[in-house]
Amino acid sequence: MTHSEGRDSRPTTDTTLPLFPLHTVALPGVHLPLHIFEPRYRQLTIDLVTEVVPDRLFGVVAIRNPAIGEVDQLEHVHATGCAVRLREARRLPDGRFDIVGTGHRRFRLLDIDSGSAPYLRGDVEWVDDEPLPEGSDEAEEAVSRLAGAGRAAHRRYCSVAWESDGWQSPPRDLDPTLLAYRLASDCILPLADRQELLEERHPLRRLRLTCRLLAREAAFVSELGAVPPPAHEVNENLLRPNLN
Questions:
Q1: CA distance linking residue 197 with residue 211, whole number of Å
Q2: By the 8 A CB rule, do 151 and 145 touch?
Q3: 161 vs 134: which has the higher pLDDT
Q4: Disulfide-capable partner of 30 in 50, 119, 148, 185 (CB 3.0 to 4.6 Å)?
Q5: Which pTM was predicted?
Q6: Report for 1-5, 125-129, 164-168: range of highest mean pLDDT
């Protein structure tokens, strides 16, 4: 079963989303591959594929503590999450699924419902970016300068962390509000850093933060000669997001 990403049907009001708590952070505009094996999330995938769930959207929230076995309270997860739209789903012979979603829009989790469906559901309010500065050459120059610095930091990191054919630069015409997320997606960052990126609402501050994180990680990789995955982000549900 395969779905292609269609025209953006951007929700405009607060809503209820199925929730998928993970030991990682979904980012807007970034692909998220998942291997689905728990029965409740198999059912969620079926409901997404058959569009029982509107717009094929589900919410990903990061679990605060790796020791938490069952999420059923707001305190168990970070309040800011990301709605993810299902793009592809492949059912395996034993009933499991391999799926790919794409981060769509940030939200703030207001409440968790653990009883009305086979899977968690959450009441959320949408959280948008602060607007980029407009209408002046100085503002446009600031956006261009930070975008260039972010792309340069990304190239430096990828040149030491990945094989030569293992990464691509984001498209030149990519929306600057999404650029920091795409640049950071090629870097294996601790959950806390990814969550900070998700919560930063100003695109230029987010680009500055991405530059600092990429520079820091490039220095670590150069010194260690390897890219160790953070232990708390190793999760049976998660496949490494390596799609472009």
A1: 11
A2: no
A3: 161
A4: 185
A5: 0.84
A6: 125-129
